[in-house]
Amino acid sequence: MILADEEHFGQPTALTGKTNDVSVPVKVVAVRRYGTWALGLAVLAVLAFVVRAFARANIEYSLIPGYLVNRSILTGVAHTLELTLLAMAVGLALGVMTAVMRQTHNPVLRGVALGYTWLFRGTPLLVQLLIWFNLSIVFKNLSFFGLYSTPMNTLMTPFVAALLGLGVNEGAYIAEIVRSGIISVDDGQSEAAAALGMPQSLTMRRVVLPQALRVIVPPLGNEFIALLKYSSLAYTISYTELLQSANKIYTTNFKVIELLFTVSIWYILLTTVFTVFQQILERRVGRGHTRPTEGIGRRLAVNLMRFRR
Amino acid sequence: MTTVTKHHDTGSTRGSGPMIEAVDIHKRFGHVEVLRGIDLEVAAGEVFCLIGPSGSGKSTFLRCINHLETIDAGNLRVDGDLVGFEQHGNVLHALPEKKIARKRAEIGMVFQRFNLFPHMTALQNVMEAPIRVRKESRTIALERALALLDRVGLADRRDNYPSQLSGGQQQRVAIARALAMQPKLMLFDEPTSALDPELVGDVLQVMRSLAEDGMTMVVVTHEMAFARDVGDALVFVDGGRVVESGHPRDVLTNPQHPRTQSFLSRLG
Ligand SMILES: Nc1ncnc2c1ncn2[C@@H]1O[C@H](COP(=O)(O)OP(=O)(O)OP(=O)(O)O)[C@@H](O)[C@H]1O
Ligand SMILES: [Mg+2]
Question: What pTM was computed for the model?
Fold first, then answer.
């Protein structure tokens, strides 16, 4: 049998060879991919070398199960979760507010929103964290109209600095996501709502945002999972999240790799769990739409292999 | 006509004069003047048809009536009230958003592309505005929504999302949604243009029954049979002006203006 030519490609008649002059059966030989084989072997060799190195190195793998449920590590996990969830809440509030501000007709609000995203997306998160942590250099005291005053350096604990740093930064990214979601909703929708007598705010809340969610949720899930991992930056301002907890242990016993592995396992575990949540949420906001959602395997692949921004 | 005017008797001029009064309406987008002096009057209870070539400004005029567009010049009144403005002495004050919204709630609008809310079921689409805008109780809103869905022949589709309905069904839900606000005036912008021919009939049937109930309707349409059979008045719009007006039967069968003649002959 001869492979079909372009014109007949995919048509069953072509595959049976009926339309062809050649009636003698011919053996089909796929293109030999020597290069692929060579590359595969090379990859295996490198892998074997790395695995051997890790296996022969002075790493006590048997310690890892114990560390996984170590009390300080578990506290670190709890802190990481707490920080991530709260920072996401701050980010969501700021992000939605900013996105809605960008859509208003008020030029002052639009300007403020634009400036905020520009500033916080334009500077590295790590730098922002350090600035929040050292804010007492700029503002000695925090006071509310002279009614209440407190020194900044007692207020700006590592946790508060980490929360604000991560949350405010996240808000700037979420704003863009929400905005693209809002823009994706057909103009006819707000028009229909307006024609029914719905004011702008109600239209946004009941008509535009719920539809924007379908576009917003997938990238938002990615943001959350990225945030989970970025929360490890709080380590630098000595907040005892997961990485810092591990750090505290290995600075005394030098089981560095064992503890970093422990930390990695926890991050992968959390990422996987939240990916499942993300999947469920996406199904829910897809109401009324027939577009299939991505499979869990694809989601995991994206979340675990995402590039840093 | 009593059913049409009973739930709004606040203004002194309301309910007595014409439902829509347009005098020399102008509207421009940038440098393009789309409406160049529209004059017309729509009586309460009337089915008023607008026909004209593409780009002649029919949709724009319709959208001015419920203030989706703001007119640049002229005098536009709905049920005696200026659209978008309030007159105190001889000063016009632009209405704040809340008041504009309240006025729009009294005018139903049906779009060419239906614009149903895709994340809500048919029933939720119909109940949304009565509950959120008119603050009706769920029970009352539900009762009326069910009656309206029944009226447009879709009682059994109440729990379907728009994506699960045919175009004709979606448009009928859209009509029910607009009626749920108990409007005194209904605007239709080519309600059947996006439909497959076999689905047009059901929608026109619903509009026909509305007309029989005495609803005031302004209908932009290419359905000349509908205009002729149901319409009480008809205007032919071209280049942002009313070129010819009269009773639909007269204008459609015996057009006077050459532009009307050529437009109608092109329709076949
Ligand atoms: N928002 C807008 N901005 C700029 N131009 C517009 C806008 N809306 C309408 N126009 C222009 O105004 C003109 C009239 O448009 P309109 O939609 O009122 O025409 P129409 O009579 O409804 O036509 P059709 O039969 O195709 O629906 C068109 O040339 C259109 O391009
Ligand atoms: Mg139009």
Answer: 0.78
